[in-house]
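Quick start: read one record
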Amino acid sequence: MAPLPRVSIHSTSDLAPYLAVLADVRDRFCTAPQDDTDSGYWDGATEGVDDRGLAVEGVKRWLFRRMEELEVLGPDGEAALEETAATMASLLGGCGSDSPIPPSCDDDDHGHRNSGPTHRDAASSSEEPETWDFLHGPVRIHEPLAGNTSDDVEIGNQIWNAGILLARVLDEGLLPDPYRTSMTHILELGCGTGITAVVAARSLPSSVRITATDFHPSILATATRNMETNGVADRVDVRQLDWNDPPSSDLAEGVDCILAADVVYDRHHARLLPDVMRCIFRASSAPVGRVVILNRIRDQFLGHIAEFEANMARAGFKGGWQWVDEVFGDAWKGERRRYRLYLFSCYNVDTIE
């Protein structure tokens, strides 16, 4: 089964090529497959894993990503956004379905124009990285081509807006004191492609130690490659961390700040994250532990968000959140009240039980 085409939408000039690919995707996946037809994405196999089902899941994630890119084009991208949403509805509701996207999917990811750094030089191949411009210099990020899997590997190997926004917060020095000035060892949870860690290495003092963590080897390989591509491999230590297991003492040693972006989209995460962070700070020798999390607020996950906030309080973390558009002020160009920046502190971490 071939990977989905590499398409990036950064300007209006990218719309025509994208719409041509979208039409092809719709023809392949929104028509009933024939037993003797090879779509190019599905090999028609009927034994073992449901290959076409896996392929459709990959297409859904590919479409979600295109929706996020179309957001930043504003009115110029609205027509393409509508076509993308129609294709998504067909995939979710069956061939030819006009049913709306159900609450379990990212339906609120389209139609919103989010603030973000300029991205340019879209790659036509997975071997060529995309370039994102930040105040502290351009960042080049490799993303493996979207495949046919439906697990967290595909999510982790893509850049998402929340990660870009967290990178911007660091890049532009928008964290308040003491978060901005007291970091000595940062640990990022769910680093994905590593874009936030790269920007942290570029924008924070060289004395700040940075550890980027994720779980799956494929995601860790992507992050490691991006550290090397951007010349920060000597600043960022890429490590594996299983949220279900206590972190090793060498991994957590001296960690006084935890970063994360878009990590609360599942009830299990809402319950697990506070415990993971508490374990990290217990294993750390830092007198104070601080947490910076930037989350996309999706209507279908509001219950998980509320549970996460309650669990953080029960775990001994003090703090709150602010809308990201308020953090950026007049520089914000997207829809308001879509992202929250959480800031938590935990004192006397050596006594946490």
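The longest strand covers residues 288-296.
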